[in-house]
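Sharing a chain and its predicted structure for anyone who wants a worked example. Both blocks are below, sequence first, tokens second.
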Amino acid sequence: MKIRMLFVVMSIATVALTGCKKNPVAPEPRNLSWSVDTLAHPDNWQVSISDIWASSAKDVYAAGSANTTRGILWHYDGNRWRDIKISITEGGPITGAINFRDIYGFGPNDVWVVGDRLERNPNAPPNYFFHSLIVHYDGSGWHEIPSPPGNEINVVWGRSPDDVWFGGVNGTLFHYDGVSVKKDSLPLDIPPDISGGVYNTLSITGNESESYMLLADFNSKPNRYFLLELLNDKWVVRDSTFYFNSTNLWLSPWGTLYAPGNWTYYRNNGIWDVLLPGSSTLWSKGVFGTRPDNYFVTGRSNVAPYPGAVYHFNGSDWSSLPELQKLDNDYYDVWTDGSEVFIVAVSGNGSMVYHGK
């Protein structure tokens, strides 16, 4: 009886100790171990990937284009990157010469990727026409979504699966209501199609209560930029006084609006301020994070010899990540869940993804 009782006590103690075993603590963002994966394509000597989106660290997408005008789309499942055969030339469903420019999703079975389809003009100039392209993944496969006539689409973002916005060149603006993609309009006078583009949508971002758009007029000298806000389902111009070569917006989970550019800016009570000191030496292209004391800014240093650089903000100070200071790299998009980080980089004619964990 004593032996049996002793065995029971020891068993209970073992279970208790096992149950109290602590989960591994994720390393601090500035102490991550970094690996790099080159996203090459056997039929292309040039691959340019600049956008990334993820529903988790085991469901990551990277999108871009290649020299064969074949949209490039990769997926990471937590173990390796896989080239998604999306072009009809590879056995995929999407026809024609295509490029991908942006990607966004709401979950593993609800992902949007946008860009353009090229058509040669028999009566050049111009040599090519660029038509809107919208592709959607529904969990069973990738499908092209019909859209009204328009130019190339630069960005996609949505508040919910049945409230998705698509913005592009020459005033191209579409909205998906859960049923179909419809044409929308900008609150600006859009001139006829002009070579070089006019009123190009560069970025759309937001949350459940706020939505913002970055619009640029590249035909004016100097270029003009417009910040638009979605109010009562209509886009309204909120600001047209700023000029800092921004091509991106990000509304953070804590409600601050950021704009990477020749420096990195944030909007404070209706006024654009510069993030200092770290980001002031960076020509920034991406910003993303999980908390006010944990976010990253990516780009290229504007101090000779101009290496690619990534900065981290911990709530009190900026720090450059020395492992990622690479002379030939341009860092673009970034995503993190607070434990792992994925950063897209372009170097020469190739693209890669840096993974920190």
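Comments welcome. The chain has a mean pLDDT of 88.
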